[in-house]
Amino acid sequence: MADWRTLSVRINSVAPSATLAVDSKAKAMKASGIDVIGFGAGEPDFPTPDYVVQAAVDACRDPRNHRYTPTAGLPELRRAIADKTLRDSGFAVDPSQVLVTNGGKQAVYETFQVLLDPGDEVIIPAPYWTSYPEAVKLADGVPVPVFAGAERGFEPRVEALEAARTPRTKAVILNSPSNPTGAIWSADTVRSIGLWALEHGIWVVSDEIYEHLHYDDAVTSYVGSLVPEVRDRLVILNGVAKTYAMTGWRVGWMVAPDALTSAAVKLQSHLTSNVSNVPQRAAIAAVSGSLEAVHAMREAFDRRRRLIVHALNGIDGVDCPTPKGAFYAFADVSGLLGRPVGPDGSVAESSAALAALLLDEAHVAAVPGEAFGAPGYLRFSYALADADLVEGMRRFADWASR
Ligand code: GLU
Q1: Which of 14, 17, 20, 181 is the best mutation target for the ligand 1 pocket, counting ligand atoms within 8 Å of the beta carbon and taking the most?
Q2: Cα 205 to Cα 264: distance, rounded to the nearest angstrom
Q3: pLDDT in tens, 362-373
Q4: Which residues line ligand 1 (CB under 6 A)?
Q5: What's the mean pLDDT in 54-83?
Q6: Do residues 198 and 229 touch, judged by C-beta distance below 8 A?
Q7: pLDDT band at 74, cuts 50/70/90?
Q8: Looking at domain 67-288, which of 3.30.950.30, 3.40.710.10, 3.60.21.10, 3.40.640.10 is its CATH number?
Q9: Mutate to test the pocket of ligand 1, among 27, 39, 43, 240 (most ligand atoms within 8 A of CB)
Q10: From 3.40.630.30, 3.30.450.40, 3.40.47.10, 3.90.1150.10, which CATH number describes the 9-47+293-401 domain?
Q11: Beta strands of 151-305 (E only): which ranges?
Q12: pLDDT band at 16 (very low <50, low <70, confident <90, very high)
């Protein structure tokens, strides 16, 4: 008999988003007057470019935008996303394959709702973005993490993925440039994963939201371009948040084969209907405009990347590889565990405990590696102002050395 006192097993099996939890706690501390330096959520500190904001202002005044749009998104935006996919990923897709979602996260969620039956497995290269396994579990699927460490640049080996494959394997996630490590996987790795997925009839879910954030000689490799045959089982996830400093506008999308997109449109029609009209108009300006603004932001991120990696590696007990993409530094902090840190000589036995101490005692917010399937690490988003970054690192260094 149903018990009214219990919630579903499904929701009880899911953890809240750790990135958003750290961000909320840091923001609440700030609101109470504590000067917290937030390296928590990956959120560019820049304002959204003016021409994008102007498009939204104009859209607000147009009564056509006070109505519903089609569930799948404004036709002009779907067309612009198809054009952008050709420009960046190097292959043509039809606008009918595009579904506009409330942020990239909704596209992740809907992908697994549409693809998975109970017990289906999804191979997730770890360290992974904290919401992937939870989105899989919300679809009654089984996340299967496959870890690749810093010694191989956090880049998965196809042999390790193959070792994790079972008859229930339905999909594999690609995320390069990667959140949380900032790794960019080589073209060889991306190609070999695409070929492997093709050979075994596995869906490839490629989260390309950090595609334009790459540094030094690294470039983003697109699996749909390197392995054209995989396109009939490829879901591309993307959005405007990271590229155009538009995290709060909540516009993401998926590009997938027609049958999958139609099924996701059906789901979304019962879930949230269309994405708000005005942000869709802003997204059209962003996606169909030039990449000049992102290139300027990338320069700033690059400068901050060097600053933070240098600062982190200057702290005794911290080891941080140099990331080539996104805006995250993923530091091994195992040298700070199990020994006194901070003025009170507190001892953290895990990176989760260390992150809590760092926030409470030094007022520096970072996300613990546990959230990304990588205990012993802390993730620092360096998408914050240079002066804050320097001050935050000074606090961490002083705190750790006392
Ligand atoms: N994706 C960003 C992060 O990892 C934003 C917060 C979230 O949605 O997880 O920090």
Answers
A1: 20
A2: 14
A3: 999 999 999 999
A4: 17, 19-20, 41-42, 105, 129-131, 179
A5: 97
A6: yes
A7: very high
A8: 3.40.640.10
A9: 43
A10: 3.90.1150.10
A11: 169-174, 203-207, 234-239, 252-255
A12: confident
